[in-house]
Every structure is written in structure tokens, then in C-alpha cells.
Design brief:
The complex is a heterodimer of chains A (358) and B (77).
Chain A (H helix, E strand, L loop, with lengths): L4 H4 L5 H10 L1 E5 L5 H11 L3 E5 L24 H12 L4 E5 L8 H5 L4 E4 L4 H14 L3 E7 L2 E7 L7 H4 L12 H4 L4 H19 L8 E6 L5 E5 L4 H10 L4 H10 L4 E2 L10 E5 L14 E3 L17 E5 L4 H12 L5 E4 L2 H12 L1
Parallel strand pairs in A: 1-2, 1-4, 2-3, 4-5, 9-13, 10-11, 10-12, 12-13
Antiparallel strand pairs in A: 5-6, 6-7, 7-8
Chain B lengths: L1 E6 L2 H6 L3 E5 L5 H11 L9 E4 L2 E2 L10 E5 L6
Parallel strand pairs in B: 1-5
Antiparallel strand pairs in B: 1-2, 3-4, 3-5
Classes of the chains: A alpha/beta (358), B alpha+beta (77).
Keywords (chain B): Nucleotide-binding
InterPro entries (chain B): Beta-grasp_dom_sf, MOCS2A, Mopterin_synth/thiamin_S_b, ThiS/MoaD-like
Pfam families (chain B): ThiS
Chain lengths: 358, 77
């Protein structure tokens, strides 16, 4: 087949490698800045079956970087416009479209038909959903993300490697990280990062080179500087995802978006007995408070130390400012420890209250 | 010791620089964070991970490295 002759002629690929590519099934989530170059190169390479998930329509402001679309595509469903263009490029492969939002109810059904998942989405909640589903179904996840002039690429969940939650355990506070549509992005950046994602997909399929597992590649288009940062697999984090499944969204959304649902002020508890305090700061963070009713469990260890936590007492968790303690509350609630609260203003509220009473 | 701190993504906008050289005494990473929070209070509202000599480190890790990277999560696609 002359279509793939420039791959087949490479010793590292050959006909056997091209057959692997033809047999592969890859799901690309997001047909935007990253998704477009990923799809173009994977379709050109002859991946046997490609799925595309995106519920969005083409907007004129997408055309600066989403190179599968043209002016006539404006207003069309992205997956429809993308499929049409991609089948012109390579009519020999199967392209499956999913013009829907990826949610916990459909993610498993969609993922199970594919060998490799590619994340080209533009928001944290979908990125965490994709990550957790990839862990549950044990599928490699090729991750790319961009901000203005900088990009990140890595491969998660590959042969016992780390996951997205090993890098960033929980979604950031809503609003603290803007997205492309709010702040702008250099058009060629997703081209560079998306093409690197396609490269990782092909390396995984072919079994050649070294996939970027356990390594976060960071690239700055303005300085041409790059840095590769090692990430370790955090077994408790992976185990937690496997155990709780995909019902994380409500818990994390509650914690990170309403920010005070489980928050309590020191004044309303200072006179109460039967309270178990938990300090989830790192053990070296000052000031320390020495009281018999305080357990010291740094947040990363919380899931490993659940047996220390009373199921009868009211649990008040504190850290420095209230962010980690809010995460801890979410973790405990998942473990059915429901009578737990995050202390407003953290350790400083505690020290102020103590100085008044003594 | 001299440490070069590199700020990625929006953190460079928060601190007003993409890198800086700091003179620090021996401290765990949590101490570095406290120092940075004082120097750049805007960082307190941001999520990030810290890498030392190109490896992610935890709060308890002692600073030994010449190169520290402060990495925020990116969502864009």
C-alpha cells in the first residue's frame, strides 16, 4: 500500500508496525486546538478506528488554531466537520463521532471500545473524569494541556505509571485557572503540543522509543526552553480512584465551588467537648499546637490513616488557610465519615481562640 | 544556598518574573513555600506543585537543589 510506504520503509515500523497501527483503536476527546492536530496525524497514519468526542460547534474564533475547520464550517458540529475533513484525508479508516458531553454516565461505555485515550479537553472537570475512567478501565492516557504560550505533554496510566492525580491530586479552586477562551492562546502552540500527543500515541502502539510515562514535558514557545519533570505513581491515590469509581464530581464540586459548605468557625465549637481535631498540614509547618485531642495526619497520608479517626466524635479538620482541610473533608465524606468540618481560617483561628481562653 | 526558582504558566504573571535567584537557608519545601507566600502573596490563591532538580517533591522534602520549578495545572486545549 503506497499510502503508508514512508512508514513501512522505516526499519522501526515496517509492515508489522503498520499492521499494528491499522489494528489500533484510539479515542480523542476534544476536537479543538489539541484535538485537530492529534486527529490529523493519527488519521493520516492509518489508525484503524478513531473516536472523536466533542459537543461543541465551530466558532469563527476557533479558526486561528483549530486547523481542521474552515470558514464554511462555522456553526457546524465539530465532530461532523472534523469527520468529513478527516475521511477525505483517509477514507480507509473508521471514524466514530460522539457529539455529546463526556460525563460519568457515558464515559465507561465510550472508553471501553478503545485501546488508547487522548485528552485534548479544555476544562478540569472533564480532565479528572477522563483520568479516573482511564484508571478504572486501565487504559493509557495521552495528556496535553496549554496556557497562552506554554504547553505540557505526558502519558498517564501506562504500564504501572502515574496518573493525573499523582501530579495534581484534586481539581484547582474554580476560577483560579482561566481557560483559552477567556485569556487567549498562541495558535501554533496546540499544533506543537497536539502533534507531540500524536507522536506518543504512535510510540505506544508501535512499542518503539520511550513513551513520556512518569515525565511531564513542559515547553515554552517564546523561549524555546523545555523541561522534563519526573512524576511518581502515588499508589494510595490510584487505589482511592479504583475504590470510589467516578462519583467524585459532586464531592469535589461541592468542596471547590461552594467553598464553605462544610466550613465551621472556631467560635461555634470552642466550648464543645467530644471533638476530634485533625491537623492535615505537613509535619514541619509552624506553629504546631500540642493538645491531646489533635491528630496530626498530613493530607497525603489521610487515606492511609483512616483507622485513627473516631467515628463517634465530631471531626474538625484544619490546615493553614482552609483549602487542604476542605479537601480532607471531601475525602472523609467519601469514606462515610460524615460528621466532619473544615475549620475556617485554619490554624490561626485555633491559636487566636486558645490565647483568649488561657 | 543559591536556588534558581522558575515559575511556569500563570504563576510567572503572579510573581512578575519567569525566574529568580533566591538566597535561602536549609529548609524543607514547606519552608520555601512560606517564604514564597510572603514574597509573592498572590501565590497563596494558586494551586501548584514544586519540582526540585526536575523531580516532583513533597512538603517534607529538604531543599538541596539548584533548580526549583513551580508548576501550575493547565486546563487549556
Amino acid at each position: 500500500m503506497s499510502r503508508y510506504s514512508r512508514h513501512i520503509v522505516l526499519d522501526e515500523i515496517g509492515q508489522a508496525g503498520q499492521d499494528k497501527i491499522s489494528a489500533a483503536k484510539v479515542l480523542v476527546i476534544g476536537a479543538g486546538g489539541l484535538g485537530c492536530p492529534v486527529l490529523q496525524y493519527l488519521v493520516a497514519a492509518g489508525i484503524g478506528k478513531i473516536g472523536v468526542v466533542d459537543y461543541d460547534t465551530v466558532d469563527e474564533s476557533n479558526l486561528q488554531r483549530q486547523v481542521l475547520y474552515n470558514t464554511a464550517s462555522i456553526g457546524q458540529k465539530k465532530v461532523i466537520a472534523a469527520k468529513e475533513r478527516l475521511q477525505q484525508l483517509n477514507p480507509t479508516i473508521t471514524i466514530e463521532t460522539y457529539p455529546e458531553k463526556l460525563v460519568s454516565e457515558n464515559v465507561i461505555e465510550i472508553f471501553k471500545d478503545y485501546d488508547i485515550i487522548v485528552d485534548g479537553t479544555d476544562n478540569f472537570s472533564t480532565r479528572y473524569l477522563i483520568n479516573d475512567a482511564a484508571i478504572i478501565l486501565d487504559k493509557p492516557l495521552v495528556y496535553g494541556a496549554i496556557f497562552k504560550f506554554e504547553g505540557q505533554v505526558t502519558v498517564f496510566n501506562y504500564k504501572g505509571g502515574p496518573s493525573y492525580r499523582c501530579l495534581f491530586p484534586t481539581p484547582p479552586q474554580k476560577g483560579s485557572v482561566p481557560n483559552c477562551s477567556e485569556i487567549g492562546v498562541l495558535g501554533v502552540l496546540p499544533g506543537i503540543i497536539g502533534t507531540m500527543q500524536a507522536n506518543e500515541v504512535l510510540k505506544i502502539i508501535l512499542g518503539i522509543g520511550t513513551p513520556l510515562s512518569g515525565k511531564l514535558y513542559c515547553f515554552n514557545t517564546l523561549t524555546n526552553q523545555s523541561m522534563t519533570i519526573g512524576i511518581n505513581r502515588e499508589e494510595p491515590t490510584i487505589a482511592m480512584v479504583k475504590q470510589r469509581g467516578l462519583n467524585f464530581e459532586n464531592i469535589e464540586e461541592t468542596t471547590f465551588c461552594s467553598n464553605n459548605a462544610f466550613e465551621i468557625g472556631i467560635e461555634s465549637i470552642i466550648s464543645e467537648d467530644d471533638i476530634q481535631f485533625i491537623d492535615v498540614r505537613g509535619l514541619s509547618e509552624m506553629p504546631r499546637i500540642e493538645r491531646e485531642d489533635i491528630l496530626e495526619i498530613p493530607l497525603p497520608q489521610l487515606t492511609k490513616r483512616l483507622e485513627l479517626i473516631s467515628r463517634k466524635k465530631k471531626i474538625i479538620i484544619f490546615c493553614k488557610s482552609g483549602i487542604r482541610s476542605a479537601q480532607a473533608v471531601a475525602i472523609l465524606k467519601e469514606q462515610n465519615i460524615t460528621n466532619c468540618w473544615s475549620l475556617k481560617d485554619g490554624v490561626s483561628a485555633f491559636t487566636k481562640a486558645l490565647s483568649k481562653t488561657t | 544556598m543559591h536556588i534558581e526558582i522558575k515559575y511556569f504558566g500563570m504563576l510567572a504573571e503572579v510573581t512578575g518574573c519567569s525566574s529568580e535567584i533566591l538566597e535561602l537557608s536549609v529548609t524543607p519545601v514547606s519552608g520555601l513555600k512560606e517564604f514564597l507566600f510572603k514574597k509573592h502573596p498572590g501565590l497563596q490563591q494558586k494551586d501548584f506543585r514544586i519540582a526540585q532538580n526536575q523531580e516532583l517533591v513533597s512538603e517534607e522534602t529538604m531543599l538541596t537543589g539548584q533548580e526549583i520549578a513551580i508548576l501550575p495545572p493547565f486546563a487549556g486545549g
